[in-house]
Known about the structure:
With 228 residues, this protein is α/β, with parallel strands linked by helices. The protein has helices at 3-9, 21-32, 48-54, 72-82, 93-110, 112-121, 128-148, 162-171, 184-191, 199-209, and strands at residues 11-17, 36-42, 61-64, 67-70, 217-222. Strand 1, helix 2 and strand 2 form a beta-alpha-beta unit.
Amino acid sequence: MDRLVAARLTLIRLYRANWSTNCERVALAVAYKELEVESVLISYSDRSVVERVSGQPLVPVIEEEGAVIFDSIAILRHLDEHHPEPRLFPVDPTHRAEVDAFIEWFERVWKGAPNGIEEELAKPEPDRARVSMLAARMDAWLDWFEHLLAVQDFLMGDELSAADCAGFPFLKYARGRDPADDEPFHRILDEHQTVEDRPRLAAWIARVDALPREYGHTVEDHTAGPER
């Protein structure tokens, strides 16, 4: 059997939660690589099944041929290593460094603003000045994305990359939020981002949103009971 065909027939089990931005990263990558996947759907109020499998409570988690990988970016790297075509991380060292640097910035710097807003709003007396400062930072960064997309269809070039998979599930809220999505963190992303006067960003969001996500069929559903 052709190695590429065999790789795509390998069944991946994905532990996920509804509306999860980090799980959507993996679903974009799995669909792009045309991989076979099945899902275990968890409730935010009961993460015990994930903890039993991975030793920690966060999704996404995947199981593949005995390996257990958690953290969405680590999963993207695993998928690209074990199912390399089509690639999400460039082979060329210079371009690979650009993608790695973007993801490092997004994870360690960009996420700090909405996470900080969520943290502040959870306090009995939020510091509204800090919320406004972080919101302004989020808004200013959207202009960076607008300029980045001036000469290319995707964040790192003319093809989808891990950078798009990493950023899209968070940046898409600049174009609005599904009314059924009532996650507090997503309301923050919706309220403090906009595509107004950013046509290239709006077009990129639409472009990536048109791509498929693959979660596979749900083999276990642990969502019964109260949600958080």
